[in-house]
């Protein structure tokens, strides 16, 4: 066997490389699925999160969205501004914190995200379908990685 600088014999043994490949494949296909809604994936994630928190009676703020989605605060702000320009969200001063802005969906935004959620969930079922009964375990392992990143 040839001398190598790698600690593994084949690229398929590199967890990071596999995750990178799967992530790129998934992102390319999810981008295609969202094209008909004229949404980027970041826009979709923020809209879906606003909808989720609203359904669960949470006061939706930019900080909450940034923490929840793992999108950095500056990018979250930029994407929310774009969504506001598109007429999909509204922002107003928080009643409890004058430095914060609450975020909500407009009627158009609600209609759009409800349709997009169906498309994305259908795509995810298809994309991750080969995991079959291992989906719950896979999600648990991903959650473990996220928890480690958060220092918990």
Q: In CATH, what is the homologous superfamily of the domain at 33-128? A: Winged helix-like DNA-binding domain superfamily/Winged helix DNA-binding domain
Low-confidence stretches: none
SS strand fraction? 5-15%
Overall structural class, as computed from helix and strand content, comes to mainly alpha
Tell me the distance between the termini. 41 Å
Query: What's the helical proportion of residues?
Result: 55-70%
CATH class of the domain at 33-128 reads Mainly Alpha
Number of helices: 6
Averaged pLDDT: 91
Shape: elongated
- CATH architecture designation of the domain at 33-128: Orthogonal Bundle
Q: In order across it, which strands form the biggest sheet?
A: 1-2
Number of strands: 2
Rg over alpha carbons = 19 Å
- Assembly form of the protein: single chain
Largest sheet: 2 strands, antiparallel
Q: Summarize the helix and strand pattern as letters.
A: HHHHEEHH
CATH T-level topology of the domain at 33-128: Arc Repressor Mutant, subunit A
Word description of this protein:
This protein is mainly α and 152 residues long. It has a domain at 33-128: Arc Repressor Mutant, subunit A. Helices cover 61% and strands 7% of the residues. It has six helices and two strands. The chain has a two-stranded antiparallel ribbon. β1 and β2 (101-105) form a beta hairpin. α1 packs across α5 (107-127). The longest helix is centred in the C-terminal third of the chain and has 21 residues, at 107-127.
């Amino acid at each position: 066997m040839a001398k190598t600088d790698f600690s593994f014999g084949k690229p398929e043994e590199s967890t990071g490389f596999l995750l990178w490949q799967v992530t790129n494949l998934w992102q390319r296909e999810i981008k295609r699925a969202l094209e008909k809604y004229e949404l980027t994936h970041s826009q979709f994630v923020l809209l879906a999160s606003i909808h989720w928190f609203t359904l669960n009676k949470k006061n939706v703020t930019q900080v909450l969205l940034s923490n929840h989605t793992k999108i950095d605060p500056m990018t979250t702000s930029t994407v929310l501004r774009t969504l506001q320009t598109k007429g999909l969200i509204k922002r107003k001063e928080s009643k409890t914190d004058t430095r914060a802005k609450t975020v909500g969906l407009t009627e158009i935004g609600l209609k759009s995200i409800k349709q997009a959620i169906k498309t994305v969930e259908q795509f995810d079922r298809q994309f991750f379908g080969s995991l079959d009964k291992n989906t719950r375990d896979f999600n648990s392992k991903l959650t473990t990685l996220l928890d480690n990143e958060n220092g918990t």
